[in-house]
TrEMBL record, chain A:
<dbReference type="Pfam" id="PF08543">
    <property type="entry name" value="Phos_pyr_kin"/>
</dbReference>
<dbReference type="GO" id="GO:0009443">
    <property type="term" value="P:pyridoxal 5'-phosphate salvage"/>
</dbReference>
<comment type="similarity">
    <text>Belongs to the pyridoxine kinase family.</text>
</comment>
<keyword id="KW-0547">Nucleotide-binding</keyword>
<keyword id="KW-0479">Metal-binding</keyword>
<keyword id="KW-0007">Acetylation</keyword>
<dbReference type="GO" id="GO:0008478">
    <property type="term" value="F:pyridoxal kinase activity"/>
</dbReference>
<keyword id="KW-0460">Magnesium</keyword>
<comment type="pathway">
    <text>Cofactor metabolism; pyridoxal 5'-phosphate salvage; pyridoxamine 5'-phosphate from pyridoxamine: step 1/1.</text>
</comment>
Automatic annotation (TrEMBL), chain B:
<keyword id="KW-0963">Cytoplasm</keyword>
<keyword id="KW-0460">Magnesium</keyword>
<comment type="similarity">
    <text>Belongs to the pyridoxine kinase family.</text>
</comment>
<dbReference type="Pfam" id="PF08543">
    <property type="entry name" value="Phos_pyr_kin"/>
</dbReference>
<keyword id="KW-0418">Kinase</keyword>
<dbReference type="InterPro" id="IPR004625">
    <property type="entry name" value="PyrdxlKinase"/>
</dbReference>
<keyword id="KW-0547">Nucleotide-binding</keyword>
<keyword id="KW-0597">Phosphoprotein</keyword>
<dbReference type="GO" id="GO:0005524">
    <property type="term" value="F:ATP binding"/>
</dbReference>
Length: 286, 309
C-alpha cells in the first residue's frame, strides 16, 4: 500500500493525544505518516500540570516550505484536529488548498475541535475560520453535536438536518460523534447510518484523535461503504478503551478513581486490535 | 496475558517526512510493545541530506521546561533513556542532568547512547569533550562506529585486538554494553563485508566481572542511509532488554532487523529511481512501516561469533 498522510496535530512527550494518538495506529496499518507537530507539550492539559511550546503559523509555513522545496509535497490524505490559533488554522487551509491543486484526489479529514456539551474549549474566534474556510475544503468531517450546531449556526433537532447542512458546506462524508461515543451518526452522501454503542464511565483524552485517524484508515479501505468503515472504527475504539479502562482501574486500585496518567490510552498494547479489529458494533443503514 | 511494562524516554530529532531520530526509533519500539515518551530536540521538514531542509530547534531551556512538566506530574519514571544525534553542547549537558536525575529516581535505568560524532552530516567538534567527559560516564549502552570509538578513547583500531582494547576502555569509562557498529577491519568473508564487534560486561554473583565479546560479518551496502544508526540503537535497546545477558542473540536480532529494513529499502529505492540511476535521499528513506513484521520478529540472517579471549 502506498498511501501518504500529512497529519498536523499536537505532540505530547507522554501519552496519546494529537499526533501521538494518530500516528502509531496509522503506521501499523501501513500508512506513511508525515507529521507536523503543532505544539510540543509534556502531556495533555487534563493532567494537574503541563508545560511546553507552540508552533506559530510562520513556523508551520517554514516546515511546509522545506517539504515543498524538495518537491515531496504530495499527499493522499491530510489530517487535522485540535487547533487554538486562527492564523495557524488559516495557514493550514492555505496548505490544504495547495496540496489539493497538486493532487485533486487528496482527501482532507478534519476534526473541527471546538468544544462539547454546550461549552467551547477553544477561543471563540476559531469558529468563523472553521465555518467559513476549513469546512469548505474538508472531505471527511467529524464534529460532535455541539460542533455541528456551531458550524451550522442552529440547534439540531434531527440528525438528518445536521448532516444535510454540513454536506452543503463541503464534506461528502460527515460523522457526528460525541465524547461518550453514544450513537454516532454517519453520512456519506446518500448513505446514512447509525451506530449504538455502550457509554463508558470515564473521561478519555485522545479518543477523538484516534477515532478520526481510524476513520481515515477504514474509509480508505472501504471507500464506498461508510457502514463498514464506521463499524471498524468504532470497534477499534471499543477495544482500546476497554483495555485502557481495565488497566486504569487496576493501577488506581479498588474503589479509587484513575487519574489522567493512568487513563492514557493503551495504544501500543492494542496493536493487534488496531491491525484487525473484531467487529463489536453494527451500523444500521437509515 | 502479562503485558510488557517498559517505558523509554527518547530525546531525538523529529522530521516531518522520513525516518531519522525519533521518527526512526519510536515506531519500531512501539511495535515491540515499549511505551515511548519522546522529546523532539528539533522539528525539521526532513533530514539534512536532502537538497533543502527547514525547521526549528529546541533549546536546552525548552528541553528543561518539558522535563519539568513530566516531573511535576510525578511521571518521570523510566526504564530506558535513548539519545542520538545532538548539535548543541548545552542541550547535551541538560540531557546528562536529566539522565542523572532519572537514574536517582530509578537506579535500574539503562541509558542508551548513539554517539553520533563522525557522520556524513555536520557535528560540531566541541561536542567531543562533552560526550567523552559527561555522556559516556553515565551511559550503559553505547553504539559508536569505529571512528567514534577511536575519538572517545584516543586509541586507534587496526586489528581486532585493538578493537577489543577500545571496547574495554569504553567499559572502564562507563557503559557495560558496547557495540562498534562498523569498522574497516578486514572481514573473513571478503571485501563485500564489514566487521562489527560487541562487548558486554556483566557482574557475576561472586562479584567478578565477566565479558562476552562478539564479532559479526555484515554485508556492505552500496548506498548512504540516514536513520539507520538511530534504528540500530533503538533495536539494540529492545533486544538487549529481551536478552539481557546474551549479547550474541541481541546482536543477531538487531543486525538482522537492520538487514531486512535496508534490503527492502534498497529494492524500493532502485525501483523508484529506475535502472542505472542513483536513488535520491527521498527515495532512500527507510521502508519502516513496510518492515513491521521484520521488526516484530526478525528472521536471523547472520551469526555472531563469540570471541574466546
Amino acid at each position: 500500500m502506498e498511501c501518504r498522510v500529512l497529519s498536523i496535530q499536537s505532540h505530547v512527550v507522554r501519552g496519546y493525544v494529537g499526533n501521538k494518538s494518530a500516528t502509531f495506529p496509522l503506521q501499523v496499518l501501513g500508512f506513511e505518516v508525515d507529521s507536523i507537530n503543532s505544539v510540543q507539550f509534556s502531556n495533555h492539559t487534563g493532567y494537574t500540570h503541563w508545560k511546553g511550546q507552540v508552533l506559530t503559523a510562520e513556523e508551520l509555513n517554514v516546515l511546509y516550505e522545506g517539504i515543498k522545496l524538495n518537491n515531496v509535497n504530495h499527499y493522499d490524505y491530510i489530517l487535522t484536529g485540535y487547533t487554538r490559533d486562527t492564523s495557524f488554522l488559516e495557514t493550514v487551509v492555505d496548505i490544504v488548498q495547495e496540496l489539493k491543486r497538486l493532487n485533486p484526489k487528496l482527501v482532507y479529514v478534519c476534526d473541527p475541535v471546538m468544544g462539547d456539551q454546550g461549552s467551547m474549549y477553544v477561543p471563540e474566534n476559531i469558529l468563523p475560520v472553521y465555518r467559513d474556510q476549513v469546512v469548505a475544503v474538508a472531505d471527511i468531517l467529524t464534529p460532535n453535536q455541539f460542533e455541528a450546531e456551531l458550524l451550522t449556526g442552529r440547534t439540531i433537532s434531527t440528525e438528518k438536518d445536521a448532516l444535510d447542512l454540513l454536506h452543503q458546506m463541503g464534506p461528502d462524508t460527515v460523522v457526528l460523534t460525541s465524547t461518550d461515543l453514544t450513537s454516532p451518526h454517519g453520512d456519506q452522501f446518500l448513505a446514512r447510518i447509525r451506530i449504538e454503542m455502550p457509554k463508558v464511565d470515564a473521561v478519555f483524552v485522545g479518543t477523538g484523535d484516534l477515532f478520526t485517524a481510524m476513520l481515515l484508515a477504514w474509509s480508505h479501505h472501504h471507500p464506498n461503504d461508510l457502514k463498514a468503515a464506521c463499524e471498524k472504527t468504532v470497534s477499534v475504539l471499543h477495544h482500546v478503551i476497554k483495555r485502557t479502562i481495565t488497566y486504569a482501574n487496576e493501577m488506581a486500585g479498588p474503589g479509587k478513581r484513575p487519574n489522567p496518567a493512568q487513563l492514557e490510552l493503551r495504544m501500543v498494547q492494542s496493536k493487534k486490535d488496531i491491525e484487525d479489529p473484531d467487529i463489536v458494533v453494527e451500523a444500521t443503514i437509515l | 496475558m502479562h503485558e510488557m511494562e517498559c517505558r523509554v524516554l527518547s530525546i531525538q530529532s523529529h522530521v516531518v517526512r522520513g525516518y531519522v531520530g525519533n521518527k526512526s526509533a519510536s515506531f519500531p519500539l512501539q511495535v515491540l510493545g515499549f511505551e515511548v515518551d519522546s522529546i523532539n530536540s528539533v522539528q525539521f521538514s526532513n533530514h539534512t541530506g536532502y537538497s533543502h531542509w527547514k525547521g526549528q530547534v529546541l533549546t536546552a531551556d525548552e528541553l528543561h521546561v518539558l522535563y519539568e512538566g513530566i516531573k511535576l506530574n510525578n511521571v518521570h519514571h523510566y526504564d530506558y533513556v535513548l539519545t542520538g544525534y545532538t548539535r548543541d553542547t548545552s542541550f547535551l549537558e541538560m540531557v546528562v542532568d536529566i539522565v542523572q536525575e532519572l537514574k536517582r529516581a530509578n537506579p535500574n535505568l539503562v541509558y542508551g547512547v548513539y554517539p553520533s560524532l563522525c557522520q556524513p552530516y555536520y557535528v560540531p567538534e566541541n561536542l567531543h569533550p562533552v560526550y567523552k567527559n559527561k555522556v559516556v560516564p553515565v551511559a550503559d549502552i553505547i553504539t559508536p562506529n569505529q571512528f567514534e570509538a577511536e575519538l572517545l578513547t584516543g586509541k586507534n583500531i587496526s586489528t581486532e585486538k585493538d578493537a577489543v582494547e577500545v571496547m574495554d576502555l569504553l567499559h572502564k569509562m562507563g557503559p557495560d554494553t558496547v557495540v562498534i557498529t562498523s569498522s574497516d577491519l578486514p572481514s573473513r568473508l571478503g571485501d563485500r563485508f564489514l566487521v562489527s564487534l560487541g562487548s558486554q560486561r556483566t557482574l557475576m554473583p561472586d562479584g567478578t566481572k565477566s565479558t562476552q565479546r562478539v564479532r559479526m560479518e555484515i554485508p556492505k551496502v552500496d548506498a548512504v542511509f540516514v536513520g539507520t544508526g538511530d534504528l540500530f540503537a533503538a533495536m539494540l535497546l529492545a533486544w538487549t532488554h529481551h536478552y539481557p545477558n546474551d549479547l550474541k542473540t541481541a546482536c543477531e536480532k538487531t543486525f538482522s532487523v537492520m538487514h531486512h529494513v535496508i534490503k527492502r529499502t534498497i529494492s524500493y529505492a532502485h525501483d523508484l529511481a529506475g535502472p542505472g540511476r542513483k536513488p535520491s535521499p527521498p527515495q532512500l528513506e527507510l521502508r519502516m512501516v513496510q518492515s513491521k513484521a521484520d521488526i516484530e520478529d526478525p528472521a536471523i540472517v547472520m551469526e555472531a561469533t563469540v570471541l574466546n579471549l
